[in-house]
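To illustrate the input format used throughout this study, we show a single complete record. The first block contains the structure-token representation of the backbone; no residue identities are included at this stage. The design step must infer an amino acid for every position from geometry alone.
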């Protein structure tokens, strides 16, 4: 599996392109902006992007979704509990002085325990409410794409609409920290980390 990271947007969001080396089928995780680096990399690798997988519905993770969906010809996946955030995207863009966006349309909804198969990649969905009610992480082999649930030495904020610190703490401690220590964590912002490192150094402990 090939993993490519892209950083975009006013909040320096991470987006990740995952490509199965055998079939060239791929997914993009989160959708901040359509930037040339993404389409150039897809073309260079000969990738066929089947899905755009969203970790949650906050504006900075979906504000480029409509453009990316059209450019890549991919279907979009989200947890239904975050549709309220997506449908009201412009309440958030205005809070952060960003231009209005058209609320996206979704083709597929996922929940805890679902598996999305793309090429030879089996992508496990882990529901992690707290940062948002519909937040999810995606586990692919020993790689966890954690959105804004888990960061290096930190966790997602819970003071926005749909946030709940008790739920976030439960998601991190009783779901993510139950994973193997050597699993690599690719967050929605900032540098990568590992589960083992966070179990020792994260502020939530």
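Output of the design step:
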């Amino acid at each position: 599996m090939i993993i490519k990271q892209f950083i975009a947007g006013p909040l320096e969001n991470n987006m990740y392109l995952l490509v199965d080396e055998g079939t060239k089928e791929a997914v993009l995780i989160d959708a901040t902006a359509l930037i040339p680096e993404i389409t150039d990399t897809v073309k260079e690798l000969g990738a066929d992007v089947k899905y755009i997988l969203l970790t949650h519905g906050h504006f900075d993770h979906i504000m480029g979704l409509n453009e990316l969906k059209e450019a890549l010809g991919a279907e979009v996946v989200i947890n239904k509990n975050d549709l309220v955030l997506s449908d009201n995207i412009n309440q958030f863009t205005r809070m952060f002085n960003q231009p209005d966006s058209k609320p996206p349309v979704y083709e597929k909804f996922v929940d805890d325990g679902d598996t999305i198969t793309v090429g030879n990649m089996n992508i496990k969905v882990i529901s992690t409410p707290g940062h948002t009610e519909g937040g999810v992480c995606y586990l692919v082999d020993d790689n966890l794409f954690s959105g804004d649930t888990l960061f290096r030495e930190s966790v997602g904020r819970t003071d926005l609409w749909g946030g709940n610190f008790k739920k976030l703490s439960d998601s991190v401690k009783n779901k993510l920290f139950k994973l193997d220590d050597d699993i690599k964590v690719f967050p929605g912002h900032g540098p990568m980390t590992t589960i083992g490192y966070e179990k020792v150094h994260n502020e939530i402990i």
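Structural context for interpreting the output: Residues 84 and 175 are 24 Å apart (CA to CA). The first strand starts at residue 2 and ends at 8.
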